[in-house]
Amino acid sequence: MKDKIKNVLLYTRTKTWEHRHVLYIAIPFVMMDFFLRVFICDIDFFPAYYPIPNIFTLSWIVLFVGIIHSLKGRWGKAAYWVIFAISYAMFLVNTIYFSLTEFCFSFTLLEMSGEGSAYIMDAILGAKPWMYLLLLLVLVTAVFVFRKIHVPDKFESKRLFKTIIAFIIIHVVAVLALGPANSELKWNTFKNPRNIYDDFSDINKCMKVTGLYEYTLRNFYVTFLKPEEVISAEDKEFLDEIYSQPDDKAENFYTGIFEGKNIIFLQLEGMDDWLLTEETTPNLYALMQESINFKNHYSMYTGGGSTFNSEFAVNTGFITPISYIENVYSFHSNTFDNSMARLFKKLGYTVNAFHMNSGEFYSRGVNYNSWGYDNYFGLVDVKNYKDNQHKLDRELILNTTFYNEMFKQDGKFVNYIITYSPHTPFTTGKEVGKLLAEMYYGEGEIPELTEEECAKLMAGETDYMVGLLIDALKENGLYEDTVIVAYADHYLYTVEDKSILEQYKETDNNLINHTPFFIWSSDIEPEEKNVVTMQTDILPTVLNLFGIDYNSNNYIGNDALADGYKGYAFFSDYSWYDGNVYVLNGEITNGKTADQEYLEMMNEKIGAIIRKNDLTLRYNYFKLRNQE
After folding, report:
1. Residue 201 has pLDDT above 90, yes or no
2. pTM of this structure
3. Count of Cβ atoms closer than 10 Å to residue 574 Cβ
4. Bridge partner list, 539
5. Which residues in 475-522 belong to E strands, given as ranges?
6. pLDDT tens-digit readout, 66-77
7. Dist. CA 354–CA 614, nearest whole Å
8. pLDDT at position 115, please?
9. How many CA within 13 A on the CB side of residue 494?
């Protein structure tokens, strides 16, 4: 009996030691993953306590421990150091790189290793001291754990097999827990964890969704192993022919009239044409009256995020793909050598973007970085706001950090300002509408306002910001040396009562997308232009006004001030409008008559432009061309 009890105790003690040993091995790996995800807590997505990233991490730790615990003697201990060294290296580079750039490390950066090698030492020395204490803590823990490692005397094949099965099961559970991907174009796809995982479209969000180990392996796979979609000979020939054509732009009366000036791009959230009036928005209206005013402008609507589509169009000269489903904020890894930011920076401009929302929303942080911006600033990233104050456009100017970055810079600048206040819901019961109504009428004194009246109240907040903007330019001696390019991101499709739109707009077709676009400078003669324009025409028009050399083939839009230019706008259903006729499915559905030969030519032209846009983005053509 005593021998039996002894054997049971010995067996129990042995198993307890083995279980404790397994937990010991896991400690440094848990520390690295958890510390990193807590460290990047500024990324407002999937907090460290969410189950999915922890399930991913559990699956990998099970695999790591199982491998180490299955190999014989020195092989098990060697495996521990190899796995730890790789994990520690990724923990190190991610921690240091994020502290300097606010982006997680990606293997795509290795393509620029020669360019960045000169800055490696500065990056290491510039890291915060406490980070090195954390790194040292992990390393000391790893050494301590190594001393506690117990490895088998022989290769445990069954244990390794069970480990692999457990890894697969846990990993599959984690992937399934992400939920289904959006299979159609939706504005909020950037928030869907399965789309983030599948597309690897935002490295910061990927790290938060998957944890260090899954992120590293997925990053490596996407960068080096994932088969690239090979461009067909037909598509390659089509693009090569388009991009090899002679640059047909020519100097005109407007070429270089703003050369050397500062520029502010003012993207106006939901500022429909019926909101931009002397009564509702006096500051904007006054600017428009003193501007080159493009009276026939259209903002292409897209269900994949019309606000960001306009940002993408103005910055890159391209738009959301029409022939296939892909949100434009997923193209951050594409090459855009001829983006607005890069062309202005070549001339010594600083280029910054300013908005209410965090850099995580629409993945703006990574996208503006990929376009060549110096910084993307979000109000919620620089200050802790309460009671929706950050949603008031006035804060874009009143915030001290924003004010200094906008108006206290050395040298010439580009400021890309994105407003927000005229945003759904249009009610005085909550959010911006409630806040503004209380400010305007007094708390408890708010009258019953219609949705239309609320929209005008919110548009008035944007207009108040514009007044502050003009005052700030004057206060800092910038008024006479700054150009403002103002345009709406989209018409106000977010109003629930569509009869409001019917009072002011054509609503039976895509001409409902008519929006304001004007370019102001204190030293120009006001004039109205009736050429048809859309978002993609803004960039080449601005480049010509500033005398910046560019190749017109590198965009799908045109200089709207070119001699003899009449213009056109097209939409996501392949319909188009040239100021005379609106054509859908090849047939005139609105407007006057047109020659059949002209209609066929334009239908073919619009089809070619959309194909150029979509294939350029799909195959990352500019990168492909650079590699040849």
Report:
1. no
2. 0.83
3. 16
4. none
5. 482-488, 517-520
6. 999 899 888 988
7. 28
8. 38
9. 20
* Cα–Cα distance for residue pair 470/264, rounded to 1 Å: 11
Percentage of the chain beyond pLDDT 70 is 93
CA distance 533 to 514: 10
pLDDT band at 20 (very low <50, low <70, confident <90, very high): low
Q: Please name the amino acid found at residue 444.
A: G
Q: Give dist(CA 515, CA 284) in Å, integer.
A: 14
13: confidence class by pLDDT, cuts 50, 70, 90: very low
Distance set, CA 533 to CA 49, 529, 536, 577, 603 (Å): 49, 10, 8, 10, 17
The Cα–Cα gap between 582 and 316 comes to: 27
Listed in sequence order, the residues at least 6 apart from 532 whose beta carbon sits closer than 8 Å to its beta carbon are 296, 297, 298, 566, 567, 568, 569, 577, 578, 579
- What are the two backbone dihedrals, phi and then psi, of residue 451, each rounded to the nearest 5 degrees? -60, -35
Domains of the chain: 2-225 (no CATH), 264-317+344-569 (3.40.720.10)
> Is-contact 454 428, C-beta < 8 A?
yes
Per-residue confidence band for 3, with pLDDT thresholds at 50, 70 and 90? low
Ordered strands of the 350-355 beta sheet: 375-378, 350-355, 413-418, 262-268, 482-488, 517-520, 291-298, 527-534
Name residue, tokens 């345009």: 487
